[in-house]
Design goal:
By secondary structure, this protein is mainly alpha-helical. It is 76% helix and 0% strand. The longest helix is centred in the first third of the chain and has 35 residues, at 58-92.
Amino acid sequence: MATLATPAAGALAPVRPRRTWVGALLGVLLAGLTLVSLFVGVSDVTPASLLAGGADGTAAFLLAASRAPRTVAVLLAGASLGIAGLIMQMLVRNKFVEPGTTGVTEFATFGMLLTTVLAPGLSVMGKAGVAAVFGLLGTWVFLRVIRAVPVRQLVLVPLVGIMLGGVVAALTTFVAYRLDLLQSLGQWAQGSFTTVMAGRYELVWLAGAMVVVAWFAADRFSVVGLGEEMATNLGLSYRRVVAVGMVVIAVITATVLVTAGMIPFLGLVVPNVVSLVIGDNVRRSIGWVAGTGALLVLACDIVARTVRFPYEIPLSVIVGVVGAGLFLWLLLRRRSRAH
């Protein structure tokens, strides 16, 4: 028996060092790309120009008014969307869902459209509030549909969500077409941080606050992921935790939508990639999900700014290509393991 136990212990020993090295690499990449993001753009903002112009120069003004707010907004959006996807997967108990594949984003977009039509003078905070309410409604509708129509196969759950989102998106497009608002609708659909600057990005800090809320409730979300019966047997208020998760998802979706538009696939692929290294414990993986989401969006944003320099392509295009490829890889990987 001793000879059998020794190799097993040796096989488990390298796991923690590997995670440590991956985490250190993630931190270094995130810090490096953050610095790169501050100095990438058409305007001349470089360390040399900052030193030459002083604290009151044009380069310093552009750094404080545009580059730094944009970088902060990208980091917060990436981290919060990854957390929103992680919580959604815990609530639904399915690894292939996120706000973009459950109709939540489409409901929030419909709320934005109604706000534009009925209250065009509403503040940005008010628009985000309306979008959050509709996102909350979309989360509730999806959960009710999944509970009413139980599906046994893993990939059918996001399919139901995509169909639900398609219905809402069709209604939104019809209303926008009749009211000549297709251009505004297209702007929301193309996620981009080109218009982010000081005074127009602070709303995304609400998404960062929701990340903090999710961190405090991480253990409860892990228990909810075991199912309603198990959570109740462990003394947890299942409905209350689900309500908190729904609010977190809705607020994150709404604030990112108002600030930058739709960013597809992020909440789907980031938690799945992290789970391959960390596992499904929310407390253990929530920091990894936030860091990986921020890193992925920041890298894609830099590519969007440089691939056709001095022009900029929408961030959603880059994230969509990368996210779709990762999603197909995850889908094929799970299917091969199932067989």
